[in-house]
Amino acid sequence: MRMLHVLVVMYYVISSPSVYCELCQSTCHIVRVKGLKSADCYGKELTRIPQCLSGGIELLDIGHNRIREIFEEDFRPYSYLEHLYLAENILTDIDEKALEYLTSLYTLDLSSTALYKIPSGIFSLPVLNKLRLGGIRNPKMVDDIEEASPVTSPLVYLDLSNNKLKRLPILGEVPTLEVYNVTSNTNVKLNTTMFAGLCNLQELVDINFTTTFDSACDCYVLEQWLTARHVKFTRFNCGFPECTNQVPIDDLNIYNSCRRLHEAQQQQIYKKKLLTNVGISMGTIALFLLIVLYFIIRRHRKQKKKTEEQAQKQRKEAIDDLL
Ligand SMILES: *[C@@H]1O[C@H](CO)[C@@H](O)[C@H](O)[C@H]1NC(C)=O
Ligand SMILES: *[C@@H]1O[C@H](CO)[C@@H](O)[C@H](O)[C@H]1NC(C)=O
Ligand SMILES: *[C@@H]1O[C@H](CO)[C@@H](O)[C@H](O)[C@H]1NC(C)=O
Description:
This is Ig(Immunoglobulin) and lrr(Leucine rich repeat) domain. The chain has helices at residues 2-27, 141-148, 193-196, 216-228, 249-322, and strands spanning 29-33, 36-40, 59-61, 69-70, 83-85, 93-94, 107-109, 130-132, 157-159, 179-181, 185-189, 203-205, 209-212.
């Protein structure tokens, strides 16, 4: 009896991964989206990241499921992932180590999850461009984000909408950031320090966004700061304060350092482009020369053959003459 029991347990242990496998293969459709190999697992009541989708998937939409936790090895099979949508899960925990497999990740959507802690590793994903952290409403969120600083991901878009933020985080220098979505947060405290390191910001998306400032002059100074840097934003209601306030020197220093970083990055991109172009041009020239060389050799060979034939003909004629 005992033996049978052990066997039954063993059977379930061995067979359950494959049962789960069949389940996930049939629940998630593999489709092509904009040329990307994609798994569509949206709204399938899944409780874990499926482990048996085909390995090369580049986009995984697993939004609106029942995933509570992401474990260390969950993304091991999916190192080609470029876009990961995890929105609307009851997700509370992401193992920091799980993120280490996501070296190609470009978009990450964690909106409307229940994260206890924003994992700091997301701010150092090497190619992360778009990050959505809207509707998480974790009161520790700002502290978590600041703890993750310095941000080393090349973030271009950051969404912190709908989070009941009391203030914006101080992100440090993020020279890549262009669009910052702070929609639907009310009475958010702002000052220049929160924007000092965002030296390439183009737009503050601030629908249903209200602000507070320590003083009317803080309001005025920030408004001047953003206006001078051509950031698109809705003007604050500062009134007409008489201010002698200047931007704090520390903030200016961070801004200037960020600009230098931005310029260095632009130069690197330019150099890479230039090198690629030079490579392509050299390749084209080399190919052209090869083709020319081929025709020269061919012509030379033909001529040689012709003269040889002529010589032979002459020799033959000479022999014919002799006979
Ligand atoms: C900003 O966030 C809101 C709320 O999540 C969203 O509806 C809106 O599309 C976002 N805007 C941009 C420009 O990303
Ligand atoms: C802006 O606010 C943050 C958070 O409250 C604070 O740490 C920082 O010193 C403030 N900066 C200025 C210039 O007041
Ligand atoms: C802004 O608030 C209004 C009123 O609460 C709401 O109807 C609208 O959808 C909100 N807009 C966004 C972009 O959240």
